[in-house]
């Protein structure tokens, strides 16, 4: 039996009727993660290349050519290759999941910070369901893209719907929720998010500007390019948004800093940090937060 997540917005996303998600066993979660490798694929950081995905799932003895979009050629002796990072991610999730007691996880951060990718990884290893607030709002608007909602209905209309989505989701359990970059600006939204555990994904603005410029900003209604270099315009706009939001981001109960992860791992560039490493750091920080409660 299923029930609508956001009845007031007539959304088409569903979860079980008791507002919880059945818990999967550890082996099921790990297997599920391998089968959905594409969901933890690389974060494009700039136009020169991509970040190494944490898991590669290939047929036995399949030779992989070396190109700009993958990694050095190799022959895999087994069907599924697990890395130490994947095993650490699984181990940490098994330790933390009972301590969460079903509380939802809310990811906040600037646009392009990887909230959706990280959220999908966390949901899989924890046995939670994943929801993207922007996608839910688009569904409620009959499939209208966020950029078009801003254009035709205005930002206030979008923010009202965003608040309603967070209100509905806050009454549920065992969810990982990716919020929009501006969700933090309304105090009422924090009232709902503080019912769970909120995590701020902190990415340097220059890295965000590189990534957003590389993938394009057409779908980002708050990144309006003026004349001149696209990267420069994007960076300037991100700096302005950061000035407006940085204090609000500090309300998050947990902060995951890509600069800190890069330093720990000996990377000179935050773009060398992969999604699995970010997810592991998120679980470590959640564990520290829960111990202090």
UniProtKB/TrEMBL annotation:
<dbReference type="InterPro" id="IPR000623">
    <property type="entry name" value="Shikimate_kinase/TSH1"/>
</dbReference>
<dbReference type="InterPro" id="IPR023000">
    <property type="entry name" value="Shikimate_kinase_CS"/>
</dbReference>
<keyword id="KW-0808">Transferase</keyword>
<protein>
    <recommendedName>
        <fullName>shikimate kinase</fullName>
        <ecNumber>2.7.1.71</ecNumber>
    </recommendedName>
</protein>
<comment type="similarity">
    <text>Belongs to the shikimate kinase family.</text>
</comment>
<keyword id="KW-0547">Nucleotide-binding</keyword>
<comment type="function">
    <text>Catalyzes the specific phosphorylation of the 3-hydroxyl group of shikimic acid using ATP as a cosubstrate.</text>
</comment>
<dbReference type="GO" id="GO:0008652">
    <property type="term" value="P:amino acid biosynthetic process"/>
</dbReference>
<dbReference type="GO" id="GO:0009073">
    <property type="term" value="P:aromatic amino acid family biosynthetic process"/>
</dbReference>
<keyword id="KW-0028">Amino-acid biosynthesis</keyword>
<dbReference type="GO" id="GO:0009507">
    <property type="term" value="C:chloroplast"/>
</dbReference>
<comment type="pathway">
    <text>Metabolic intermediate biosynthesis; chorismate biosynthesis; chorismate from D-erythrose 4-phosphate and phosphoenolpyruvate: step 5/7.</text>
</comment>
<dbReference type="GO" id="GO:0005829">
    <property type="term" value="C:cytosol"/>
</dbReference>
<dbReference type="Pfam" id="PF01202">
    <property type="entry name" value="SKI"/>
</dbReference>
<dbReference type="GO" id="GO:0005524">
    <property type="term" value="F:ATP binding"/>
</dbReference>
<dbReference type="GO" id="GO:0009423">
    <property type="term" value="P:chorismate biosynthetic process"/>
</dbReference>
<dbReference type="GO" id="GO:0004765">
    <property type="term" value="F:shikimate kinase activity"/>
</dbReference>
<keyword id="KW-0067">ATP-binding</keyword>
<keyword id="KW-0057">Aromatic amino acid biosynthesis</keyword>
<dbReference type="InterPro" id="IPR027417">
    <property type="entry name" value="P-loop_NTPase"/>
</dbReference>
<dbReference type="InterPro" id="IPR031322">
    <property type="entry name" value="Shikimate/glucono_kinase"/>
</dbReference>
<keyword id="KW-0418">Kinase</keyword>
């Amino acid at each position: 039996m299923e029930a609508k997540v956001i009845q007031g917005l007539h959304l088409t996303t569903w979860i079980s009727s008791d507002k919880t998600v059945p818990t999967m066993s550890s082996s099921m979660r790990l297997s599920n993660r391998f089968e959905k490798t594409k969901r933890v694929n690389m974060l494009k950081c700039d136009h020169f290349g991509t970040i190494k995905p944490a898991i590669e799932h290939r047929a036995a003895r399949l030779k992989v050519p070396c190109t700009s979009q993958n990694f050095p050629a190799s022959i895999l002796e087994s069907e599924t290759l697990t890395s130490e990072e994947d095993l650490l991610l699984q181990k940490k999730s098994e330790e933390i999941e009972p301590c969460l007691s079903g509380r939802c996880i809310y990811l906040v951060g600037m646009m392009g910070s990887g909230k959706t990718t990280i959220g999908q990884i966390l949901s899989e290893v924890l046995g939670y369901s994943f929801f993207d607030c922007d996608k839910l709002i688009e569904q409620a608007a009959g499939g209208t893209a966020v950029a078009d909602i801003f254009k035709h209905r205005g930002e206030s209309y979008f923010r009202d719907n965003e608040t309603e989505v967070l209100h509905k989701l806050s009454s549920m359990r065992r969810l990982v929720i990716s919020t929009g970059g501006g969700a933090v600006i309304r105090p009422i939204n924090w009232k709902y998010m503080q019912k769970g555990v909120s995590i701020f994904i902190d990415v340097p603005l220059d890295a965000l500007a590189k990534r957003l410029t590389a993938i394009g900003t057409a779908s980002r209604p708050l990144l309006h390019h003026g004349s001149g270099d696209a990267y420069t315009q994007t960076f300037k706009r991100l700096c302005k948004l950061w000035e407006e939001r940085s204090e609000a981001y500090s309300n998050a109960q947990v902060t995951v800093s890509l600069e800190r992860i890069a330093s720990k791992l000996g990377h000179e560039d935050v773009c060398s940090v992969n999604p699995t490493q970010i997810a592991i750091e998120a679980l470590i920080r959640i564990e520290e937060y829960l111990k202090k409660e």
